[in-house]
Description:
- Helix content is 52%, strand content 8%.
- By secondary structure, it is mainly alpha-helical.
- Helix 5 packs parallel to helix 7 (228-244).
Amino acid sequence: MTLLAIPFPDLSPEIFTLTLGSFSFSLRWYxxxxxxxxLLGWWIVQGLMKRPALWPGAQAPMEPARVEGLLTxxxxxxxxxxxxxxxxxxxxxxxxxxxxxxxxxWEGGMAFHGGFAGVIIAGLxxxxxxxxxxxxxxxxxxxxxxxxxxxxxxxNFINAExxxxxxxxxxxxxxPGAQAQTCPWDWPMEVCARHPTQLYExxxxxxxxxxxxxxxxxxxxxxxxxxxxxxxxxxxxxLGRFIVEFFRQPDAQFVTPDNPIGHALTLGPLxxxxxxxxxxxxxxxGLALLIWRRRA
Length: 296
């Protein structure tokens, strides 16, 4: 059968490497995505604080100069929460037997749902210590979160990781490292093309979600209702992730001969991946928050 697929472009996970004797330092696209996401988020949130008319009572919840302190809390929450979430949700058995590797964040292994929980905790601590309204701060962070998410997924694509299930669609990508034996037994091709689910997520959870939130903030004045923007973000991300999980390659530890689809949770006739199981509470919680705040 003629192969209709896109060969993976010649991309290196490393932007550059500096070597001085025995010391070597590499700047990776994934790290740059985090840095760019934080800096763009800081710039936009600072701009929001300079426009009091967007906020309830024409008063911004904090001074622009204090956004830098909030950013520090967010960075700590993302890194600690994302790493611990990956350890607890995806590979608890491995890290219980190898606890020293939990701190090796430079080797990869971050979970969005854990990072999300970490940001919530860090944000609440900041708000309590500095006396600022939590829901308004949450709305500001929710607006810029899709930027970091989208950049991170593009970096996942460059790293050729977290690819999707096998596909015969012409936009399927032949990722290096995606072994042919993981394809269906009757696969008609000599190589395994896969859904580029990193780009699906970058589009849905990044570009589209940010466009919707930006329109609600700057055109519809939704910052006047504290918590509404946060509700849209939480539900929107959960929905986007739930959809993409249908095309995403399941985590290897969940795939067995009896469970080739990689369902991590079974609810009656419904099988869910770990990503879907963690996204359902986000969808429900985001909608509940949105309804509650809009009614209020």
